[in-house]
What we know:
Elements: E1 2-11, E2 20-30, E3 35-39, H1 46-54, E4 61-66, E5 69-73, E6 78-79, E7 87-90, H2 102-111, H3 119-132, H4 148-160, E8 166-170, H5 178-195, E9 198-203, H6 206-212, E10 215-220, E11 223-228, H7 230-235, H8 240-245, E12 250-258, E13 263-267, E14 270-276, E15 285-290, E16 296-298, E17 309-319, E18 324-330, E19 333-339, E20 350-354, E21 360-363, H9 366-374
Helix pairs in contact: 2-3, 2-4, 3-4
Amino acid sequence: MLQIDGLRKAYPGTGGRPATNALNGVSFRVEEGEFFTLLGPSGCGKTTTLQCIAGLEMPDSGTIRMGDAPVFDSEANIAVPANKRRLGMVFQSYAIWPHMTVFENVAFPLLYGEKRRARADVRTQVAKALAMVELGHLSDRPAPMLSGGQQQRVALARALVHQPRILLLDEPLSNLDAKLRDSMRTEIRNLVKSVGITTVFVTHDQVEAVGMSDSIMLMRNGVVVQQGSPRDIYLRPNSVFTADFMGRSNLVPGTIVEVGEIAAIETNFGVISGVPQGDFRPGDPAVAVIRPQAMSLVTEGGVADRSNCFSARIASLNFLGDVVETEVVCRDQRLLLMLSPYVQHAPGDEVLLHVPADHCVFVPPEETAGEARSA
Ligand SMILES: Nc1ncnc2c1ncn2[C@@H]1O[C@H](COP(=O)(O)OP(=O)(O)O)[C@@H](O)[C@H]1O
Ligand SMILES: [Mg+2]
């Protein structure tokens, strides 16, 4: 278990530039064995958070607990040095030593680590770590004679060889080409799940985060915007920022006209029922978030009642094979939706658009959400 509370970190400005508040009170908890991902745009504080956990950066304030013991506590003046935290790390530039063999690279933390180990012990541990990443057969190969993916696996084996309590991965896939990145995603996820190690993974790629994580924490400007399962974050965004960051969506502004578990918003193409994400009162401005996959075209009588059904006209169709990217116009509102390739329509068709209420969420408009977050 990893528990972070109220982490703050500012980097002093150099050459007359103002200081950067990299972390403005970040708190989260990672459960034992969980694959936990820090997600967010470049500069939002992901690496700083990871470096603070690793003990490579000193937070200004806050606490970091691993298991039951603090490894950092600004008030109690506790700061356990990096090499005593028992962590495994892989960075973006995973820097394996070019003048060493695969074996020597993986053995490195054991030979030069905190405590000395017997040769036989080192052999067993390295063999075990190499077996985990399926590189046992390449043990004696010089490191430069490996493919990108194999080098990446050496870095993983080296991070796991001393049986760390937590594995920290900072954008470990970003130096790999697209195809390899896809297969390494599954490989890393399977590896950490089979070892059962608690993992904190950093990425700016939402597809990577959704495909690999048990839990995702989305960050922006040094604060936590939202945390939850990939499904929750994707389907139940709490802000325009989350909705936008996690994939394509229709963002329709309007005014809340009804509150409750299912609320209603008045938009320029009618009143839509949906799930409020936040505390709204009638009259509040809000934005309806509707994913392109959330809507369907129905026929009169094809749905039980006409609630959340809107007359629309097909503006354009883009057949992509897997889906047909379709633009419809509902009064003045353009909406993007994904249709099945088996459904045939033509531009100009008059259709009935159905938005299931539980597929539509209401979030605060971006300005007020931003103010609330930075307050
Ligand atoms: N060593 C440093 N000195 C000064 N500013 C830094 C340093 N490291 C990071 N920053 C700044 O802190 C903010 C957060 O950076 P970082 O944690 O690296 O973000 P991320 O990993 O999400 O891209 C950024 O504005 C970045 O420019
Ligand atoms: Mg980074």
